[in-house]
Amino acid sequence: MKHGRASGETGVKKVTGRDIRFSVAPMMDWTDRHCRYLHRLMSRRARLYTEMLTTGAVIHGDRERLLGYDAFEHPVAFQLGGSDPADLAKAAKIAESFGYDEINLNVGCPSDRVQNGAFGACLMLNPALVADCVRAMKDRVDVPVTVKCRIGVDDQEPEAALFELAQSCIGAGVDALVVHARKAWLKGLSPKENRDVPPLDYELVHRLKRAYPEIPIAINGGLATIEAMREQLDFVDGVMVGRAAYHDPALLLRVDPELFGEPATFENCFDVIDAYIPYIERQLAAGERLSSVTRHMLGFFAGMPGARHYRRRLALEAVRSDAGVETLLQAVGEVRCAMERRELALASEG
C-alpha cells in the first residue's frame, strides 16, 4: 500500500479557504481507502477524510492496516477521536508520519460508543479541553490541525456553545473549523436521527465566519446539490458533503468544473468504472474480496434505466469469494443494455 506526502512537500503547512472549498465528510464504515480512491478518480480537488480512528487504535493497533492508503488519494485528512491531549499528540504524530495532509479532531460524533469514551460531540461541553487537545497536537506536528464540531449539544444555547468552542480552538492555534450546522442530542436520538432531526442553522455558521474572517470555516449538514453548495460558498470558505457524495457519487463529477472552474476528470460513471478497474484488480490480487471495493459503487447510475438491476446484481454476486472484475462488468452491462433498449424504444416512437 502506497502512502506518503507528494514530492516536494515539506515544512509547516496551512489550510486555505480554497483547500477546504469542497470536502467529503469522514463517515464511519464508508470512507475507507477504497472509497477514497474512487472519490479521487471523480474529483482532483475534493479534500478527502478518513473514517474516524481512536487514539488507542492508532497507538496500539495494526498501523499499516488501519492507516495505510494509496498516495493517489492526496489531499487526504486523518480524523482522530480522543480526549486525552498526550494521546492525541502521539497519535497525530503517527498519522503525520504516514504522510496525511491534515489531522482533524472529531468533536461532533454523537454515538453511544463515542460518548462512553468521553470524546466526539460530548467535547462540545468542554471547550477548554478541546483547546488543550488542539494545542498538544499543534506542538507535535507540522501538518494542519483542524476541528469538526456541532453547533452545540443537548440544552446548550447554540450561539454561545459554538462561539465558545471556536474561540477556544482559535486561541489554541487551530488551522480550520468544520461545523455541522445541527445540534447533537446525546440522549434520546440515535446517530442516524442526529443527522436529520435537529434543525439546521446555517445562519449561525455564517455569523461565526463573519466574526472570525481570518479562520477557514467549512459548513456541513444537509447539502445535497451543487446549487446549495454554491449558495453556501457566498458565506463560508468551504462545504463538506457526506451522504450525498456516497449515495449519488456522480455528484463528484461536477465538483471540479462547477466549484473550481477546472475540467471534469471523466464524462460519466461508465468512464470512472473503467478507470477504477486496474485498482480493483490490484486489490483482488492482494486478497481483498470484490464486495469490499465495489460496495462503494452501489450509488452509481441513480435514476438511470437498469440501475436497480445493477445494484441487485452487484450486491448479491460481489460477495462471492470467487467474484472478479467480470462480476462488476456484468452488473454495469445491465445499465448499458437498459439504456440501449430505451434508446431503441424512443427511436421507434419517433
Automatic annotation (TrEMBL):
One of its GO terms (molecular function) is tRNA-dihydrouridine20a synthase activity. This is tRNA-dihydrouridine(20/20a) synthase. Belongs to the Dus family. DusA subfamily. Pfam families: Dus (PF01207). It is an enzyme of class 1 (oxidoreductase). It comes from Methylocystis heyeri. FMN binds at P26, M27, M28, Q79, K148, H180, N220, G221, G222, G242, R243. Gene3D superfamilies: 1.20.120.1460, Aldolase class I (3.20.20.70). Its cofactor is FMN. It catalyses: 5,6-dihydrouridine(20a) in tRNA + NADP(+) = uridine(20a) in tRNA + NADPH + H(+); 5,6-dihydrouridine(20) in tRNA + NAD(+) = uridine(20) in tRNA + NADH + H(+); 5,6-dihydrouridine(20) in tRNA + NADP(+) = uridine(20) in tRNA + NADPH + H(+); 5,6-dihydrouridine(20a) in tRNA + NAD(+) = uridine(20a) in tRNA + NADH + H(+). NCBIfam families: PRK11815.1, yjbN. Its EC number is 1.3.1.91.
